[in-house]
Design brief:
The longest helix is centred in the middle third of the chain and has 24 residues. This protein is mainly α.
């Protein structure tokens, strides 16, 4: 149908309104033509049907000619009011193209479109009269539906009485009047309305009222409580400055019948629920109920619900559940239950059919509810940084927030992105417009945030909402909560919590502990602070550390049984098996916690736990690196051993500290602590410890390119290991001796000790040291320009390193493959290998290896002609050398930069870099 700007109105006196005003329709005949064409708007109406409806069964002979004449006048009237094309001629008839109020009413049931009797001012016959009756029926049905939803209105009785006068035998109307009278307390009048209808039906039609109305009459006689109906509108006001949650709202677009909104205390569950309920309230015309279940027992909640639905207190039955579901049957009511504690408290309040919606907020996930009903759960997370910033901006204003961007970001962090904390912080700032955001951040930093995050006159603080969740915990869960509050890391594994005692599931269900994925859990920063203030922890810290000692000891037995200074009983309660890969994967997930746990032990002055935990983690750091953290661990351990007066432990942790210092390129410091340790083990007569320290001191000399001293110390290590009967120790010293020959540029001397070491490691099934030896053999053959064996040895080393997931050796093997492929003339493959190596180095946090690999990558880039990439990698290598100084390696970087600048035609820069390289090479001491 072609759109027009006008409207034809037939729900009352017939009229046409166009852009230029109302059409001048003269006489009933013209109005009738417009009306019947409007009844079929958009479709042609045949001439003979028009004649029938306009003149009835006996039309005059001139009817058709007269019809054409009237149509012409109507068409002119329509054109005059701005609708020139609305009435069109069709084969055999006419068609009206216009918007019609009756069609709009059919879609919307908008009673405001009615202006009186339908098609008033027309004279119609036959099907025209039937259409009038149809429209009247539509209107009265719409009125019944309208008042059926509004029986609680003060004018309901008056309006229904007026309608019943016009339709005295319409049972639906009489029934509505009876209900309205009954709810108004006029029981006798309600019964009288039924009596009048029954008498009229008997007198006029000889029938009785139908069963539905008769049942209503009986219910009124019995004063049935189910007859009491109200249209509650109890939703609280929206919270100001609502921010975010778009994804959560989108997930509720289909209006699932039961929704549980859960999340940590203070995350905004009630705020979210009220906001969403307000948005969808129009889709629940029978009312919206809001109950706070924190202050009500389940029985009280059900009684309150019945009162909300219109049932007087004296009509609530002993078992109100059936009445509750009866009242909701066939209705559309939105029910919000706030702060539900347990699933069993909700079960009696679940509606019997799905036209209603039950919206629940709870700190608990209420998983038991899902075993009986289909539940859609919305787990509210903390706000994102952006959402938290938007919330502060909404409350404080753009100008104030933008004036202190860094302080605003820090405030978000201090509040942990928790909506309640952010709102309280913003409220404190809002009441003091002159206060800087940074001042509040400083107050939060210097004081207990739980004390700061309060507002005078409002008892809903961060501490009180946490306390309300804590009060519902069982004694076991509360004890576990306090212990986990002392855990110093960002997250912890499930097995740790389970080892501390039962209650993890309860804490997760209460959202005091959050699952963060991969079997790990965490406490929000403010919740952790609350946990530490929630009661006596007893021996919780000791038990926590003992669990870490158990894990570290079991892991060390798998990774490197040679670290056997600490003996502990065997445990069957372990989160991993006997496979190296499995153990390393577990410790990788715990890596960030290790230093924090050792700090905790040191802070609590638990000296034995401090040094033993650091010692038992030795084999992990050998495999994975992260040497900067290892330096601090060993420093704590050395102090703890000295506090205990344990000279052997002190020597071992000094040795570990020396290795870590050397791996972070602090070689001079490493040499000092290694010699201090050597003195201690000699005094104790510890041959194996002495041999290991000779080996480590030799390694330091080798890195300093003090090769004569390195060779001397390696030979001393081999002698003492041999005296101690330590075959693996002898082989390790031989391997390191071969490595030093390679660093000296004497690869022809390296083969004999390396192959001897390889035989021992294979015989002892020590894959890690086998891989290390294969890599050194690869380096030796690379220097000998025998590249195929070099490629094979590096490849075997890579394979073993990946099998045992030793990332440090994996990075070295990839680098070796890269430089060998480059020497073979395949820079593309070389760059791929070296790129992979760089990724592993960065994972390890090993600045020395990262710098060396970046330089090697630059050489591959140069071979490929990618000068920009080469410059980027060389700049990165120089930057990394600031944290991991090595004059020889730095000289190589400048030498490669000189080559790059030469290719770019920058001769002055090339000469400068070459001069720096010469200076650095000259400064490197050689034996």
């Amino acid at each position: 149908m072609r759109e027009t700007a006008g409207e034809v109105r037939i729900l009352g006196p017939v009229e046409v309104c166009g852009p230029h005003g109302r059409a001048e329709l003269t006489g009933a005949r013209q109005r009738s033509i417009v009306a019947v064409l409007a009844l079929r708007a958009g479709s042609p109406v045949a001439v003979d049907r028009l004649v029938d409806v306009l003149w009835g069964e006996d039309p005059p002979r001139t009817a058709v000619r007269s019809l054409h004449s009237h149509v012409a006048r109507v068409r002119q009237a329509l054109a005059d009011c701005g609708l020139p094309g609305a009435l069109v001629t069709k084969p055999g008839g006419y068609q009206l193209d216009a918007s019609v109020d009756a069609e709009t009413f059919g879609r919307t049931r908008d009673l405001g479109l009615w202006r009186g009797e339908p098609l008033a001012g027309t004279e119609l016959f036959g099907w025209g009269r039937a259409e009038i009756d149809r429209l009247r029926e539509q209107r009265i049905a719409a009125l019944e539906a309208h008042w059926g939803e509004r029986l609680d209105r003060p004018d309901a009785v008056e309006e229904l009485e007026r309608l019943v006068v016009g339709h005295p035998t319409r049972e639906r109307l009489v029934g509505l009047l009876m209900r309205a009278l009954h709810q108004d307390g006029r029981h006798a009048d309600a019964l009288e309305a039924f009596r009048r209808l029954r008498q009229r039906l008997a007198d006029e039609l000889g029938v009785d009222p139908g069963p539905e109305l008769t049942a209503l009459h009986t219910a009124i006689l019995r004063r049935d409580p189910s007859l009491h109906s109200a249209r509650p509108a109890q939703l609280p006001a929206r919270a100001g400055h609502f921010t975010g949650r778009a994804a959560e709202f989108a997930a509720l677009a289909d209006l699932p019948p039961i929704v549980v909104v859960s999340g940590v205390a203070g995350v905004g569950k009630t705020t979210f629920a009220v906001e969403w309920a307000r948005r969808v309230a129009g889709r629940f015309p029978d009312g919206q109920v809001f109950l706070d279940l924190q202050r009500l027992t389940p029985a009280q909640a059900l009684t309150e619900m019945l009162h909300s639905l219109g049932v007087p207190a004296d009509r609530v039955p002993a078992d109100p559940t059936a009445l509750y579901r009866t009242l909701l049957h066939g209705k559309k009511v939105l029910i919000v239950l706030d702060d539900v504690r347990r699933a069993r408290d909700v079960l009696p309040l679940v509606p019997g059919d799905q036209g209603n919606l039950l919206l629940i907020t709870s700190r608990d996930t209420l998983s038991a509810l899902g075993t009986r009903h289909a539940v859609h759960t919305v787990n509210l997370d903390l706000l994102t940084d952006s959402e938290a910033h938007d919330l502060l901006t909404d409350i404080l204003g753009e100008e104030r927030v933008s004036a202190e961007p860094a302080a605003t970001a820090e405030l978000v962090v201090r509040c942990g992105r928790l909506p309640l904390a952010l709102r309280i912080a913003a409220a404190r700032l809002a009441i003091r417009p002159g206060r800087r955001i940074s001042d509040l951040v400083r107050e939060l930093t210097r004081n207990d945030p739980l004390d700061v995050l309060t507002v005078d006159g409002d008892d809903r603080t961060v501490r009180t909402v946490f306390a309300s969740a804590h009060r519902t915990l069982s004694a076991q869960a509360a004890e576990l909560f306090r212990v986990l509050g002392e855990h110093p890391g960002a997250s912890f594994p499930a097995d740790l919590a389970d080892a501390m005692g039962p209650g993890l599931d309860e804490l997760v269900a209460s959202h005091l502990v959050s699952e963060v994925g991969n079997g790990r859990y965490a406490l929000h920063d403010l919740i952790r602070l609350f946990a530490r203030q929630s009661g006596d922890i007893g021996d919780g810290v000791e038990r926590l550390l003992d669990r870490y000692l158990t894990i570290a000891h079991a892991a060390g037995e798998v990774l490197n049984p040679r670290h056997d200074l600490v003996a502990r009983p065997h445990s069957d309660d372990l989160p991993f098996g006997s496979e190296r890969v499995e153990v390393l994967a577990y410790l990788d997930a715990e890596r960030d916690n290790m230093l924090h746990v050792i700090r905790l032990a040191a802070r609590e002055e638990l000296h034995r736990e401090t040094w033993q935990l650091a010692y038992l983690l030795t084999s992990y750091f050998e495999a994975r690196g992260n040497w900067a953290a290892r330096v601090e661990q060993c420093e704590h351990a050395v102090r703890a051993a000295r506090a205990l007066g344990d000279r052997r432990a002190e020597a071992e942790m000094l040795r570990g500290q020396g290795i870590a210092l050397q791996m972070t390129s602090r070689i001079a410091e490493a040499m000092v602590v290694q010699r201090e340790a050597l003195q201690l083990v000699r005094e104790a007569g510890d041959l194996r410890g002495e041999a290991r320290l000779h080996n480590n001191i030799a390694n330091a000399h080798s890195e300093l390119r003090e090769f004569d001293r390195a060779l001397e110390s390696y030979r001393a290590a081999m002698d003492v290991h041999g005296t101690a009967g330590d075959e693996v120790g002898v082989a390790l010293a031989r391997r390191n001796l071969g490595y030093t020959y390679v660093r000296m540029g004497r690869p022809e001397l390296a083969a004999e000790p390396l192959f001897a070491a390889l035989d021992t490691f294979r015989a002892k099934e020590n894959q890690r040291l086998e891989a290390a030896t294969l890599m050194t053999l690869g380096g030796a053959f690379h220097q000998l320009a025998d590249l195929e064996p070099a490629l094979r040895y590096f490849g075997d080393a890579l394979r073993i390193s990946r099998e045992i997931t030793d990332h440090r050796f994996e990075a070295d093997a990839l680098s070796g493959l890269g430089i060998t492929q480059l020497a073979l003339g395949d820079p593309a493959v070389a760059r791929d290998c070296l790129t992979d190596a760089l990724v592993v180095c960065r994972t390890l946090g090993d600045g020395h290896r990262e710098a060396s690999t970046s330089r090697q990558l630059a050489e591959a880039d140069l071979a490929l002609g990618d000068l920009a990439a080469a410059r980027e990698h060389l700049d990165a290598a120089l930057a990394a050398r600031t944290q991991a100084p090595d004059a020889f390696e730095q000289a190589q970087v400048h030498r490669t930069l000189a080559g790059l600048e030469s290719r770019c035609g920058r001769w002055t820069e090339a000469a400068r870099h070459l001069a720096q390289a010469v200076t650095l090479f000259t400064s490197c001491r050689r034996s």
